[in-house]
Amino acid sequence: MLTIVIASYNHEKYIESCMLAVLGLEWASVIVIDDGSTDATAEIVQSFLKKHNASNISLIQKNNSGLVSSLNLGLSLARTEYFYLVASDDIPDKDGLLQCIEKLENNKRSQFCIGGARAFDDEDEGSTYDVYGKAQESFLKLKPSERSKASLFNYPVPLLLQSTVFRVSALKDIGGWDSNVVLDDYPMFVRLLSVFSEWDRDFLYAPEVDVVMYRQHPHNSFRNLLRQYTIVAQAIRSIAKAPLSEYAVSKMFAYYSIVAIKNRQFEYIKPIFKASSGRVIVSSIYYFFNIPLSRLLTVFRSYLKSKVR
Hints:
Layout: E1 2-8, H1 15-22, E2 28-35, H2 41-52, E3 57-62, H3 67-77, E4 82-87, E5 91-92, H4 94-105, E6 112-121, E7 124-130, H5 134-141, H6 144-153, E8 164-167, H7 168-173, H8 186-195, E9 203-216, H9 225-239, H10 244-262, H11 269-274, H12 278-283, H13 285-289, H14 293-308
Parallel strand pairs: 1-2, 1-4, 2-3, 6-9
Antiparallel strand pairs: 4-8, 5-9, 6-7, 6-8
């Protein structure tokens, strides 16, 4: 019925809790794909499989080649109708997965079901919060033509692959993940929604069904602002042509620059500038002017204070 791909890289601290969440799922084939981890991740998985006699879980080890490579490998191995992927530092919810599958079974035209997600801090698992809100629902409810523009200029963050159950055929119909793009979620959703575009018909949205616990920890990739900016910019350029893509990248430049200043992560400011063209920097002025002056003064005052110290 369901192929679950657990994509793993250097998650020795988290991988066991992820596998425990899917242990014993007779209706699911679970594939752990380790992307050349340099820690003890693979050894922990092998020990877990022996300890629990986990017949529904298998391990594939490959040379480090990135998350997208792991996801495409997992998709190529899927022999089920449904497909689900999760990072090995997150915790899937068995009941939520089953509920999404039931919704898709009852809606044969729908190609994927975006379920809900709850986030928690690694240091405080007892405190959780909903990942999705009005921004995600408003975006998904847009008419296809309006959503296409919003995908570049008003995309809601986050929208998680790991809260979504897909039909294998839908992912294969669009060719899986683009191997030339590093980012896994944003460009995939844009491509899916451009083909399967009708709300509550081509795709389903069920935020009330918790599918995954999304772990926040110091090593989350989104915390590296320079990396996040560069891979988002790459994804945008893969989706749209210039000059539209450059205007969208300009907005991202303005956004990540403000985030760096606001969070006092001043070490990212110069590298973000160096990674951007002059056209992007100049175009970003438009977006800066759409930020309230009081807020700009606050963040730049904070930046100036840091330079004095």
